[in-house]
Amino acid sequence: MRQHSVVTPSRAARPGVVPAARGRLRSLTIALLTIVLLLVGVGVLMVQSASQVVAISAGQHPLGGVLRQGGYAAIGIALMLAISRVPTAALRRYSWLLLAAGFLLQVLVYTPLGYEAGGNRNWLRLGPISMQPAEFMKFVLLVWVSAVLTTKRRLLGDWRHVAIPILPVVAASMLINILGGDLGTLLVLAALVFGCLYFSHVRLRILAGIAAVAALGIGAMTLMKPNRVVRIMHFFEVDCLRDAEHAYAGCWQTLNGFWALAHGGMFGAGVGGSTAKWHWLPEAENDFVFAILGEELGFIGAATVIVLFVALAAVLLALSTCTDSAFARSVLGGLVVWISTQMIVNISVVLGFVPVLGVPLPFISAGGTSLLSLLLAVGVALACVREAGAPVDATRGR
Description:
The protein is mainly alpha-helical. The protein has one domain. Helices cover about 65% and strands about 5% of the residues. The chain contains 14 helices and 3 strands. The protein has a 3-stranded antiparallel β-sheet. A hairpin with a 2-residue loop joins β2 and β3. α5 packs parallel to α8. The longest helix is centred in the N-terminal third of the chain and has 34 residues. The protein is globular.
């Protein structure tokens, strides 16, 4: 009697992080991973260079920057790859639990576990770990808002279904941020949510109304913190390049950022060759890391980094056209707006176009919470891409 063997699907046939089938989706996914890893690599290099002098003068390890930022990068990349394997249905199902965890961390900032740094009370210390819950909340809202919009995708023509429960929840998160003095995160959160709404095809008249309400709310919340009002008024009233009287006060950081970029010239002073990081430029590895990057890598290096961000936005937008999933479109669109807004605000601050807001440069500025949140968000984007390419890969496997 002839025996028939049963052929089971091989493990290789399972969809991976990168779609197996050759085509546009595979090329875009490879481009996404390449750009993200390049930006993370540049970030580790620049954080080490910008923080080395301060670390040595404080008696710390001279390689503390690369060890710290490199460690966060390694953990973030591992989490990115892990979450890329999670079904988006599970992400949507547990998005409310994720939201509860995000709010809990934000509220803990105002307990003895929280502390103030740089004039903002937005830090949380849990044992040996310090984190910024506001940065983690960006990732939380990206997933939660996208999940809500997906559930209500057939009802988004009614403004009430768009506003409830998204606007009250987002407003509560923003209020917690502004009480701590964090205006920069407030603007990025508003842009992120607006991006999710726009790419979910919410009607323009509804978006216009939401934008008007958001602008009024941000203005009112800003007036709640006198130090923010003073900083904004100083920006509009003082010309840092011509008013020598304020050179050692409100203009110190801005002026040293200008001089760092000017010293870099076209080709830069070389990695490690910055003079601004020698205690001249405050927050050199954080909010003003782009100034150090421009000084050491020059105009060519700074322009290349900007081109990478533009390419990343283009790749994410192209990926959003490769899926029919409402959740994927919202996540990819919100991620584009999140990264682009944060990049534009950070570089605009360094160039003196807007007041100093304390917004990190995505993937590059020092900070574990910011980097981990971004890489987690990229992991969710990869999960959406994996499911978009799964039917093609399954067919090929069979």
